[in-house]
Amino acid sequence: MRIASLQKRKLVTLIAFLMATILILSGCGGGPEEVPEEESVSEAPAEETTAEEELPTFTMEEIEAFDGQDGNPAYVVVDGLVYDVTESGMWSGGVHQGQFQAGQDLTEEIMEESPHGTGVLNRMEIVGQIAE
Ligand code: HEM
Questions:
Q1: DSSP class of residue 68?
Q2: Which of 74, 104, 77 is nearest to 89 (CA)?
Q3: Beta strands 104-105 and 75-78, pairing class
Q4: Which residues of 45-66 are buried (b: 16+ CB within 10 A; e: fewer)?
């Protein structure tokens, strides 16, 4: 009887120890740590949106001056966004393929006449947007 009750006590102690260990380990499993990560990820798009809203605004009359001639920068407008093509070797003197002149809205031309479409614009810096 005595031996049996001693063994029972040991067993209860062992189970209690195991349960405490499991509780401590699952407590360290990092639930709270994930929360700040999610917060910081959700903040990023908000900042990007703000940056886009803060793009400088141009009128089409102002854009005409950026024709890439006489040392002027060369800007082209596509879909309301202003792209800087000054540094592109394919736009030297503000002219592309001998027929397209910078300082204009070329949305229709790039979509309907070019073999490349708008994908090439990803290489160009966006420097502004057109005032509505
Ligand atoms: C007949 C029409 C056109 C032809 C044949 C033409 C042809 C080309 C070719 C062969 C390239 C180089 C392709 C490459 O590097 O992957 C190019 C690049 C480019 N094109 Fe056109 N294009 C045309 C119209 C236009 C128009 C209307 C725009 C208006 C914005 C435009 C904007 C650009 C830009 C931004 C690049 C990239 C230049 C660079 O990477 O330095 N293209 N085009």
A1: S
A2: 74
A3: parallel
A4: eeeeeeeeeeeeebeeebbeeb
Six-digit token string for 101: 């002149």
Beta strands (DSSP E) in 24-99 are: 57-58, 75-78, 81-84, 95-96
Q: How far is the CA of 103 from the centre of ligand 1 (A)?
A: 15
List average pLDDT for each run of 10 residues in the chain, which is 132 residues long.
60 56 49 55 56 86 98 98 98 98 98 98 98 88
CA 47 vs. chain centroid, Å, equals 9
Query: What's the one-letter identity of residue 49?
Result: T
CA distance 57 to 81: 9
pLDDT of residue 124: 98
Cα–Cα separations (whole angstroms), residue 71 to 12, 94, 108, 122:
88, 10, 27, 24
Pocket test for ligand 1, best of 116, 124, 127 (most atoms within 8 A of CB): 116
